[in-house]
Amino acid sequence: xxxxxLIVQLLLVVAVIxxxxxxxxxxxxxxxxxRGRDVDVTSSTDxxxxxxxxxxxxSPTSVIWHDKNDQHLIYNSNENISxxxxxxxxxxxxxxxxxxxxxxxxxxxxxxxxxxTIQLVYPTAISISSFGYLLNNDGLKKSNSHQFNRILINLKxxxxxxxxxxxxxxxxxxxxxxKNSSSNPISKLVKQANINLKIRLNIMKHGIFTFYSNPIKLxxxxxxxxxxxxxxYTSALFDSNTGGLVTSxxxxxxxxxxxxxxxxxxxxxxxxxxxxxxTDTSVPKSQLAFLQRGYQKVVNLQNPVSNLRLYRADWKKxxxxxxxxxxxxxxxxxxxxxxxxxxxxxxxxxxxxxNKNLEVPVPSNQTATKLKSTTAIFKGLxxxxxxxxxxxxxxxxxxxEEETDNEKVVDLKPTxxxxxxxxxxxxxxxxxxxxxxx
Length: 438
Prior knowledge:
Layout: H1 2-28, H2 46-50, H3 54-57, E1 62-66, E2 71-75, H4 81-89, E3 93-94, E4 98-101, H5 105-112, E5 117-127, H6 128-135, H7 138-141, E6 147-154, E7 162-167, E8 172-179, H8 184-191, E9 195-204, E10 207-212, E11 216-218, E12 221-226, H9 230-237, E13 245-250, E14 253-258, E15 262-267, E16 272-277, H10 287-300, E17 308-314, E18 319-326, E19 329-332, E20 340-343, E21 349-354, E22 357-362, E23 369-371, H11 374-383, E24 391-402, E25 409-420, E26 423-426, H12 427-431
Parallel strand pairs: 19-24
Antiparallel strand pairs: 1-2, 1-5, 2-9, 3-8, 4-8, 5-6, 6-7, 7-8, 9-10, 11-23, 12-22, 12-25, 13-14, 14-15, 15-16, 16-21, 17-18, 18-19, 18-20, 20-21, 24-25, 25-26
């Protein structure tokens, strides 16, 4: 009996030591957060990069649910609601959309404020045919180049007979008939949201603005950031034979010319890079080709793209801008151009990107930030002389702030970002006031 008790005591001691050792590694490992948590955690392995599909990079970034009374911006930290709804829609039979209305602000307001309706909102307009490609839906693929940025699905009835596609830029509304659909899977996703912020959609001079009705609380985050050596980029972006590579340096700005076909400029002061491909002189002829080639170029940069989303698409100027997102909100101040900017022209394509990529979240001792209501933000802008008509856009986003004592860690803090005169700035830079609620 004594021998048995001794064995038990020894096993207990081993268990305690093992627990302490495991706890030490978990708390000292920067990747201790669960990978399943949808805070857009990226992985640096090539296999994971290649698995990020185009319909994730080009996808809605906001989900709005209008119940019987109010509208809510919803999000699920454990499962991306937008991507899950897209997955549900892939099984639907959606016919070619028909025009319902255009340039009718009053009707448009009724559509985007319809009760019992879920909205998937893209940060930029895409063509209906591109949407068909992303969903692999033949009925939508046949559609013309009409653009939209909102998908509206009424969940009042069990069967969904129609969906609506709406464009904030010209108040165009398109209706598409739906078969083989049910509202149950989407209703279930709505109920699982663990972030629920009361909002209202207001039509302003420069578009549809999302107003947060009350002060909102959002968590701050800290991430480990990684970069690459210039040689890794030249090896990946140029031909494998680097014998023709000519390198020059001026004030810590390195230029790599590969013959007369490609040039990479790497500014080590700002860590911004610019790739010019003079052989890529064919301009995309369709909006779908425009998005496809932009997506492929982003992947070819070999940056982690799982938290990257298409942010702006300018079809006329052939510009694409991508930003990183955290918890459904865009990251600002990482650079002057977002995360990646691509331009197509007959002189060649240009890609601007940063040698700073979010890798894994790290422990943060920052408390949640409480931001003012959007109405209070507009009042603050008015106090310093900006009228509501001056505001071209307003978004809640995460501000990129590098830690002074650790260059490999960046803090992401929520705040309001305002666009006035085509310039994005945080609210405090426009007003010298904090966006935080006292």
